């Protein structure tokens, strides 16, 4: 008499539809990138779903003194972002398909500490990640970087020191560098920006949002930019400099203007890249009426 075949108990456990299971892992991975390496060890299918999310936001500090191998760096409670030393990035490029980073990387933050050979590093990184939409370069670039950034046709948000890109000439906002940019964060000292700033910014055809790091007089800088009717949002970022008093009333009759206390470039970039919770979203809240607030208070 043949014995009945009893299925293993694991086969009797209810399983969620594959699409739902994938969505659950993707939401969890997006909310906390630090969990992605653990998710990747769960199953091959989970690795395929979550590994691309590990590289959606990349942070580079291009110095020869960093440790080898990808690690994650904490941004705030329960939130992490991959920090890939350049040697480790080269290794990943050699083992991943050519299109992997092109398809999956969307946001890149490049920190200070750049060495003399950094132009080569930029070429490698931005060629591999050519479909990014958001680029933050903290250190002063040189004119040699213009052709590299011009090749990023999907780029919409750019934070950069523009003066050093075009030195010793004035910034050419009509350059192909700015042709697709909608959100521009200028890290330059405001005293070095062009006097007819509004007219110059109008040369960037898609630009609707601009922000400035405020070091001196907010009303005076606004006077230089207010003539640009194309701009929908004008943000003045105060990093806590003594010359800027957020408690003082400012009479700026322009509902596009927002003044924000802004103290952590990296955290702001990460939060904006992850879920849009950055100063741009804060500036647009409340019908863009002039406000004074403390970012991440």
Which helices and strands, and how do they pair?
Blueprint: H1 9-12, H2 18-31, H3 36-40, H4 44-54, E1 57-60, E2 71-76, E3 79-83, H5 86-95, H6 100-104, E4 107-110, H7 118-128, E5 134-137, H8 146-150, E6 157-160, H9 162-166, E7 183-186, H10 197-201, E8 209-214, H11 218-225, E9 233-238, E10 257-261, H12 265-275, H13 279-284, E11 292-294
Parallel strand pairs: 1-4, 4-5, 5-6, 6-7, 7-8, 8-9, 9-10, 10-11
Antiparallel strand pairs: 2-3
Helix pairs in contact: 2-4
Low-confidence stretches: 64-72, 74-78, 286-297
What summary fits the major beta sheet? 9 strands, parallel
How many strands in all? 11
Order of SSEs, N→C? HHHHEEEHHEHEHEHEHEHEEHHE
Give the overall shape.
Answer: globular
Terminal Cα separation, in Å? 75 Å
Number of domains: 2
Report the radius of gyration as a whole number of Å.
Answer: 23 Å
Strand content: 15-25%
The computed structural class is alpha/beta
Strand order of the largest sheet: 1-4-5-6-7-8-9-10-11
What's the rounded overall pLDDT mean?
A: 78
Helix content: 25-40%
Question: What's the number of helices?
Answer: 13
């Amino acid at each position: 008499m043949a014995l009945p075949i009893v299925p293993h108990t694991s086969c009797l456990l209810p399983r969620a539809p594959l699409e739902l299971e994938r969505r659950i892992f993707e939401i969890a991975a997006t909310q906390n990138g630090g969990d992605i390496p653990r998710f990747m060890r769960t199953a091959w299918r989970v690795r395929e779903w979550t590994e691309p999310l590990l590289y959606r936001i990349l942070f580079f500090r291009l110095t020869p003194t960093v440790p080898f191998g990808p690690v994650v760096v904490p941004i705030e409670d329960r939130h992490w972002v991959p920090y890939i030393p350049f040697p480790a990035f080269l290794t990943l490029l050699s083992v991943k398909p050519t299109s992997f980073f092109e398809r999956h990387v969307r946001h890149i933050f490049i920190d200070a500490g750049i060495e003399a050979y950094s132009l080569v590093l930029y070429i490698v990184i931005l060629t591999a990640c050519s479909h990014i939409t958001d680029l933050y370069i903290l250190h002063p670039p040189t004119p040699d970087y213009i052709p590299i950034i011009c090749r990023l046709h999907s780029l919409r948000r750019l934070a950069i020191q523009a003066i050093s890109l075009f030195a010793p000439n004035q910034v050419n906002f009509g350059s192909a560098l700015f042709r697709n940019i909608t959100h521009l964060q200028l890290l330059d000292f405001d005293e070095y920006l062009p006097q007819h700033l509004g007219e110059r910014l109008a040369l960037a055809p898609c630009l609707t949002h601009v922000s400035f790091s405020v070091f001196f007089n907010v009303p005076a800088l606004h006077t230089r930019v207010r003539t640009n009717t194309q701009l929908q949002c004008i943000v003045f970022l105060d990093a806590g400099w003594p010359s800027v008093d957020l408690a003082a009333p400012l009479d700026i009759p322009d509902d596009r203007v927002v003044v924000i206390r802004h103290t952590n470039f990296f955290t702001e970039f990460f939060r904006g890249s992850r879920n849009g919770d950055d100063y741009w979203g804060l500036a647009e809240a409340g019908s863009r009426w002039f406000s004074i607030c403390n970012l991440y208070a």
